[in-house]
Amino acid sequence: MLVLGMMSGTSLDGIDLALLDTDGEEKITTGASGFFAYQPSDRDILRAALLCADGLPTDILTSRAAWPTPLIAAETLITQRHFEAARDFLAQEKRQPQLIGFHGQTLTHRPDEAMTLQIGDGAALAAQLHIDVIGDFRSADMRAGGQGAPLVPLFHAALIGPLEAPLGVVNLGGIANVTYLSKDGAILAFDTGPANALLDDWMVQNTDHAYDANGALAAQGQVDEAALAALMQHDYFAKAPPKSLDRLDFDLAPVAHLSAADGAATLTAFSAQALAAGLAQCPQQPSRLILCGGGRHNASLCQHISRVSGCAVVLCDDLGWAGDALEAQAFAWLAARSLRGLPLSLPQTTGARQPVTGGVLFKA
Ligand SMILES: Nc1ncnc2c1ncn2[C@@H]1O[C@H](COP(=O)(O)OP(=O)(O)O)[C@@H](O)[C@H]1O
Ligand SMILES: [Mg+2]
Measured in angstroms, how far is the CA atom of residue 293 from the centroid of ligand 1? Predict the structure, then answer.
């Protein structure tokens, strides 16, 4: 079936869209992809909702009727922007999808409390677009004892096919996650640390830019080793995988005293060092790392990763993958799997007790 995947990640940059012809298994034919950027005012609304949600107890977050205004405003915005994004994107396409995989926007992620919140009204989106929508991809995994994240690993494994193992596929989104694939086909996946989110926050607070384009600012700065060591003190790195992160699990306090450039350099080094710490928790050192997600456009980050990972690093584009659309493709593929009742996660990718399907269908 033809499926549209839509992903709005923790970077809050916008919505990635991708069409996929797929059976939710090995048949994967990629189609057009696109991007719908959020306006700065949209991002302000989303940031306010993130901070608001962070301070709320789980029982309020799980009861929509109890939500304060910033959360309602953010959800209305997310639904509306996804409607506009899909409408504009599909207006250019001859073939219309029969299903949409709608990730929504994560506001808070609390694996220790078995709660994760992706906002966005799937039922409204289905009604507005006249296309069935699958949303709420993560809750079922958590009900089965899993982290609810990461969910892209099974798609990575499906794409890899018979490539040389052991290898790691790294998604450099707001948060970084790795999918480790061994020679015998075994898989292990988990979040490794921040990729862009913390650095983006630093850029917003210290410069006039939303992100460090090509890593240019980091390239002008010096890594502050003491601040880097302080960042690496976080107890997340000692936890055994599978494990996952909330966007706000790390904060900028250890770099607060640095100049804009030194802070950017140190945070960039931190994302790479955190990834290396994660790779050290894999059963074997991968021989090759495949970098995906927006962070692969950051040359400083890629250089740090090459240096500290000890792996040969390639960009996923070199394998013919659409690096910016990969996660949207993943949620199209996962939507097709959801419709067919196939697993979206495994004990080795999220810590769920058994392979579990997930997603909720909203009929048009
Ligand atoms: N040219 C670039 N140079 C440096 N960083 C970039 C560039 N393009 C994108 N990014 C980073 O990638 C992020 C978006 O990555 P993305 O994969 O969409 O993450 P998410 O899934 O969390 O939204 C941006 O916020 C930015 O930090
Ligand atoms: Mg994004």
Answer: 7
